[in-house]
Amino acid sequence: MSYSVGQVAGFAGVTVRTLHHYDDIGLLAPSERSHAGHRRYSDVDLDRLQQILFYRELGFPLDEVAALLDDPAADPRAHLRRQHELLTARIEKLRKMAAAVEQAMEARKMGINLTPEERFEVFGDKDPEQYAEEAEERWGGTEAYAESQRRAAGYTKDDWKRMQAEVADWSERYSGLMAAGDPSASEAAMDMAEEHRLHICGWFYECPYDMHRCLGEMYVSDERFKAFYDSMRPGLAEHLRAAIDANAARHTS
C-alpha cells in the first residue's frame, strides 16, 4: 500500500512543502511514483519519516539526521532506544526547570509604577496585566518570577520605552538576518540569540543557557508567544528556537 504526499503530510502533521524538501535533499525519497509522476510513499517511507521527525524534535540538523539514518551499521531499534533516552532526559530537564519563565515578562507588569495614562502611552491597547494571574499561579514561587517582579516595580515609563525600543531594534535586525538567508546555526544568528538571552538577564532575571533553551521551546509551543515572534517575521519563532539551541551548545559544550 502506498500514500500520496498529501496523505503523508496529514498523517505526520508536516507540510507538503516539507516533504518535497526532504525529497529534494535526499533525506526522504518516496519509494514509488504514480504513472503521472506523483510521489507515493510506502510504510517503510513512513517509518523513516517518523525517525526524521523524532530527531528534528530533538534539535538535530537535517544533515546529521541523514548521516544517522543512512549509517549501514545502525540498528533501527538502536535509533528508537537512543531517541527514547534523549526524550526522557529532555522531559526530566524541563520538569526541573521553572520552564516557560518567559511568561514572567508579562507578569512583570503587575508592579509597574505608571499612571493609567502612562500605561496606555507605553503599551497601547495591550493590557499589561493580561497574563498576570496566570503567571503568578504558574511561576509565583520561582526565584526568576520574584526577581522579575522586583525589578519591574522600579521601572519608570522611560525604562519601559527604552526596553521596547531595544526589542524593536532586535526584531528588525533578526528579521534582516532571516531575509538574508542566514541559517539558525550561523554565527550571526547565534549572536542574536545570545543578545536575546542577555536582554532577559539585563531587564528581568538571570537566564542560564538551559533556561533559555526552555524558553525557546515555549516560543513554538505556546501559540501566544509564537504569534508574537512570528509577527516580527513569519517563521521567526522556529528560527529563533533553533538559534537558541545552537548558541547554548557552543557555550556549554
The general outline is elongated
Q: Compute the gyration radius: what is it?
A: 21 Å
Derived from helix and strand composition plus strand pairing, the structural class reads mainly alpha
Please indicate the percent range of residues in DSSP E strands (runs of 2 or more): under 5%
Number-wise, the strands total: 3
Report the major sheet: 3 strands, antiparallel
Enumerate the strands of the largest sheet in spatial order, edge to edge or round the barrel.
1-3-2
Which H/E pattern describes the elements? EHHEEHHHHHHHHHHHH
| Overall pLDDT confidence | 80
Percentage of residues assigned to helices: 55-70%
Number of helices: 14
End-to-end separation: 45 Å
Low-confidence stretches: 98-111, 127-136
Please describe what this structure looks like.
By secondary structure, the chain is mainly alpha-helical. Helix content is 67%, strand content 3%. The protein has 14 helices and three strands. It has a three-stranded antiparallel beta sheet with strand order 1-3-2. Helix 3 (43-57) crosses helix 4 (62-69).
